[in-house]
Design goal:
binds guanosine-5'-monophosphate, five-stranded parallel beta sheet, 214 residues, alpha/beta, 9 strands, 18% strand
Length: 214
């Protein structure tokens, strides 16, 4: 399989990144179900949280399986985040794009950079910021699914992740989920309408101009 994605006649890749706890998981779930998007399900070596479902939130795999996928070039991108391996399985994404479907990703800045490098014209990137660090911490505590030392680690990493905001096409501050959701939908709608993505527009306009009027 070639390592580069070809832009012609492919769907777009919508990438959301944010520090853990900024609300991205809820946003991606809602976006997927209401906007005709395929959600890329990542593989990860981290432990499953109680509320998570295998194959829905992630495919949970061990380090050996992760390394094998990397070595076989089965991952479109991968990164180490909070001491665990995370990666995007290539096959499903390529199948969706080849069928002209748009794909939604919930990945970190490192993975975003890798995909942007491979297919800039087909990628739209959005960074979601929390309204404040205090709010980010209370969201992580409220979620109550991670051990305390994990929360401390995630908060420390959040500063590094937030520092990457300027590498993204769009930046949204998640004051409230509904507003953030509407803003992402507006971005998606506009990006889908971009002239450069409108396959078949030339034929349509040719027809329009040669249409015989009664
Ligand atoms: P969490 O463990 O909280 O689910 O995710 C931790 C971080 O890993 C989040 O920033 C999330 O976006 C990122 N992440 C999840 N899946 C992937 C992936 O496949 N690739 C990369 N690069 N990052 C991922």
């Amino acid at each position: 399989m070639a390592d580069t994605l070809h832009p012609a006649r492919r769907g777009l890749m919508l990438i959301l990144s944010s520090p853990s706890g900024a609300g991205k998981t809820t946003l991606t779930r809602n976006l997927k179900s209401e906007n005709n998007l395929d959600l890329s399900i990542s593989v990860t070596t981290r432990a499953k949280r109680p509320s998570e479902i295998e194959g829905v939130h992630y495919r949970f795999i061990d380090r050996t399986a992760f390394d094998t996928m990397r070595q076989h070039n089965d991952l479109l991108e991968w990164a180490e985040v909070h001491g665990n391996g995370y990666g995007t399985p290539r096959k499903e994404v390529e199948a969706s794009l080849a069928a002209g479907r748009d794909v939604l990703f919930d990945i970190d800045w490192q993975g975003t950079q890798q995909i942007v490098k491979k297919a800039r014209a087909d990628v739209v990137t959005i960074f979601i910021l929390p309204p404040s660090m205090a709010e980010l911490r209370s969201r992580l505590i409220r979620r109550a699914e991670d051990a305390e030392e994990v929360i401390v680690k995630r908060l420390a990493n959040a500063r590094d992740e937030i520092a990457r905001w300027s590498q993204y096409d769009y930046v949204i501050v998640n004051h409230d989920l509904q507003t953030a959701y509407e803003q992402i939908k507006a971005i998606l709608t506009a990006e889908r309408l971009k002239r450069s993505r409108a396959v078949g527009l030339t034929d349509f306009v040719d027809q329009l101009l040669t249409e015989q009027l009664p």
